[in-house]
Amino acid sequence: MSLTFIAPPLQQINSEIARHAGVDLYVLRLDLMHPWVNGNKWFKLKYNLLEAKEKNFTTLLTFGGAYSNHIYATAAAGNLFGFRTIGVIRGEERLPLNPTLSFAVQQGMQVVYLNREMYRQRNTPALEEYLRQRFGEVFIIPEGGSNLNGVRGCTEIIDRAMPTAGCAYAFDHICVACGTATTLAGIVLSLHERQRAIAFPVLKNGAFLAQEIENLLTNYLASDLPSPYSSPASWELVCDYHFGGYAKVNDELLLFSQQFTQEHGVPLDYVYTAKMFYGVMDLLKQGFFSKGVPQRGCRRHRLLLVHTGGLQGNLGMEKSLQRFSKI
Ligand SMILES: *Cc1c(COP(=O)(O)O)cnc(C)c1O
């Protein structure tokens, strides 16, 4: 499948804090690959779309919240690749549609709603049966594109950072924001054993993800999907930067995000990337990334932040922020 993607730029960040910590800081700008189908959501969709095409499905059905980056990307990708799309949205319909859902509808997505109780059963055979009864032959992609096809796509993310990175295994640490950790799992599977992935859950009490990550890695390696290495690289969860939980923000985070964008020209989304970038800058000050020996052939530690996109979500968020506070 080919879209006119641009290769995600690898942008170096000139930061006094990083320099002081002896670390070179880079951002892999997955947000710039395509105006609508970008970020980690494209990588999670890619092999799901290929499987749907291979199996001759003409309709994709998937799930998400009303501001979901995945719904947005699926609507656009479906349109570009000639699939009909159905978006099953959690909760009640609210009119007028928010920017995410109006975009999805413009892209031709049929948007339907499930109350929270039914939505919770989205991964059960009973609900899938109900949806097939209602919509006919549909290729079902789980919420967020979070299945083994999704992991597979995410094993290709770090490749994108290599051609311009200088030495082959240039990055000591690769940082990524985490919801389900599907993206993290793909990244971990694609790293050299001397590299380490650092995951920043955006949910409260993110420690439960450790088990999810183990399961994803085990299931992936037990499947017949291709993996660059036979064992996963090391990884670590940093659970202190959730700012109160999913889609919760405070003034400190908003201010950080605005300043970071102004100083470095990197826009951040409030739900995922702003929290991860905030965490990284805070940990840099604590010397977290300065320990040990840099990778072979490198004189300084190199840190890669994966910009997973999600900027479309800021539209809806900024609207409600204006309503509730004076930002
Ligand atoms: C969905 C999303 C994530 C989380 O990805 P997981 O694979 O669920 O961990 C991170 N960043 C952005 C911008 C996202 O949209």
From TrEMBL:
Supply the SUPFAM superfamilies for this chain.
Tryptophan synthase beta subunit-like PLP-dependent enzymes
Required cofactor names: pyridoxal 5'-phosphate
Outline the extent of the Tryptophan synthase beta chain-like PALP domain. Answer: 16-292
Signal peptide start and end residues: none
Query: Does the record carry S-adenosyl-L-methionine as a key word?
Result: no
Where are its TM segments located? none
Sorted keywords for this record are: Pyridoxal phosphate
Which family, according to the similarity comment?
Belongs to the ACC deaminase/D-cysteine desulfhydrase family.
Record-given protein name = 1-aminocyclopropane-1-carboxylate deaminase/D-cysteine desulfhydrase
